[in-house]
Amino acid sequence: MYKLLLFTLLVLMTLAGCSNSGAYDSTEAIKRGDITFSPKGVHSLDRFEQFLNNVSTNKEDAVRVTSYTIEGDPIFEDLQYDGEKIQYSYDNSNDAFGGNDKGIDSDVCTEIISKVNEQGKEEYYITGCSQNTDYVLLEIPEAKK
């Protein structure tokens, strides 16, 4: 009886250790339709452009931007547009090196803008947020011409 209980406990601990609270790698993110940003590049940019078009025409839409740290840990940014405002959620709870600020934050914002930085990379920001903060969504290696 004791051996069975010990075995069951070990199996449960192993299964719990394998779960990663919804985290998934970039291959799975691409399959799910996420806009992915990693050291390897940006994928599903066309889906992001479609989302931007839907926002500009007041059409409801939702996307997930999933970026990956150098170590491969995912950071999720969910954008839910209701035709007027964008519900924004930032989740870095799976970032092993995220420090003390790990967790999920959310805000309500009004628009997404792009800027070309000094390195010639196009950056997209979500702005007009209730917490008076602009958030960087993603960075495109080369700005569109």
Task: Report what the structure shows.
This protein is α+β, with helices and mostly antiparallel strands and 145 residues long. The protein has a domain at 22-111. The protein has helices at residues 2-18, 26-32, 45-56; strands at 35-38, 41-43, 61-68, 74-81, 86-91, 104-109, 111-116, 122-127, 135-140. The strands form two sheets. It has a six-stranded mixed β-sheet. A three-stranded antiparallel β-sheet has the order 7-8-9, with no helix packed on it. Strand 3 (61-68) and strand 4 form a beta hairpin. The longest helix has 17 residues, at 2-18. It is globular. The protein starts with a helix and ends in a 5-residue tail after the last strand.
Key features of this structure:
alpha+beta, 6-stranded mixed sheet, disordered N terminus, 3 helices
TL;DR of this structure?
This protein is of the alpha+beta class. The protein has helices at 2-18, 26-32, 45-56; strands spanning 35-38, 41-43, 61-68, 74-81, 86-91, 104-109, 111-116, 122-127, 135-140.
Summarize the topology.
Blueprint: H1 2-18, H2 26-32, E1 35-38, E2 41-43, H3 45-56, E3 61-68, E4 74-81, E5 86-91, E6 104-109, E7 111-116, E8 122-127, E9 135-140
- The helix/strand series, from N terminus to C terminus, equals HHEEHEEEEEEE
Give me the Rg, rounded: 19 Å
Mean pLDDT: 83
Number of strands: 9
> What fraction of residues sit in β-strands?
35-45%
Shape: globular
Largest sheet descriptor: 6 strands, mixed
Class of secondary structure makeup: alpha+beta
Largest beta sheet: strand ordering? 2-1-3-4-5-6
Helix content: 10-25%
Distance between the termini: 71 Å
Poorly predicted regions: 1-20
So how many helices? 3
